[in-house]
């Protein structure tokens, strides 16, 4: 199957929906992911990259995402008491039709939804989109020292490929070593079944927010 770049259309699941990002989403994204703990985990280049306020975030964030190289989505809750609320952003990008490869990244979620249905269903929607459009390998990566993110990627069923040293400059002048994972088309049926089983375990329970400190 020849790989083709997916159109920028909404991806709708049971718990979340991924809508193509617009500039109008930026103030809501600041509220959701412009938090110190999100940047401290490595988002956007680390803590030193965190903008001072919503206006600075809007000026910085739009150029953070790979618009020319892929599709960026704002993540919204799709059902329950928080229906329609913005809880994060993610991208499916770096499309290489010849090599049939793509990359899921530039992902950040509000700490309120860490450990909920949000990430597994978002990844299910993105992986399904990539593989249904003929891609054979999808890369997912994170900072090598980001234990929470690495554990979440491994729980998806992605295979650890190794660490690329000094791969990405950070805002404080240091460099990030990057842990690289992937899912290939041969593994997709098993990975998909695992994600579907995880989501089924939540049943009819909607996405419910975790409590978090002010700030």
TrEMBL record:
It comes from Homoserinibacter gongjuensis. PANTHER family: BLL6696 PROTEIN, N-ACETYLTRANSFERASE DOMAIN-CONTAINING PROTEIN. Residues 16-180 form the N-acetyltransferase domain. This is N-acetyltransferase. PROSITE patterns: GNAT. The lineage of its organism: Bacteria, Bacillati, Actinomycetota, Actinomycetes, Micrococcales. Pfam families: Acetyltransf_3. Gene3D superfamilies: 3.40.630.30. Signal peptide: none annotated.
């Amino acid at each position: 199957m020849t790989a083709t770049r997916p159109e920028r259309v909404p991806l709708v699941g049971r718990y979340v929906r991924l809508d193509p990002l617009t500039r109008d989403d930026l103030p809501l994204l600041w509220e959701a992911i412009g938090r110190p703990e999100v940047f401290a985990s490595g988002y956007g280049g680390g803590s030193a990259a965190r903008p001072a306020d919503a206006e600075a975030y809007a000026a910085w964030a739009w150029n953070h995402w790979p618009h020319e190289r892929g599709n960026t989505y704002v993540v919204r809750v799709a059902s329950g008491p928080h229906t329609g609320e913005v809880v994060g952003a993610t991208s499916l990008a770096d499309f290489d039709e010849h090599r049939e490869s793509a990359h899921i990244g530039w992902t950040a979620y509000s700490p309120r939804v860490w450990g909920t249905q949000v990430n597994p269903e978002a990844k299910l929607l993105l992986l399904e989109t990539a593989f249904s459009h003929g891609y054979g390998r999808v890369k997912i990566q994170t900072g090598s020292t980001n234990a929470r993110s690495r554990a979440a990627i491994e729980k998806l069923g992605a295979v650890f490929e190794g660490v690329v040293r000094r791969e990405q400059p950070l805002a404080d002048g240091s460099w990030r070593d990057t842990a690289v994972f992937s899912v290939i088309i041969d593994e997709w049926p098993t990975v998909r079944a695992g994600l579907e089983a995880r989501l089924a375990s939540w049943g009819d329970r909607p996405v419910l927010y975790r409590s978090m400190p002010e700030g």
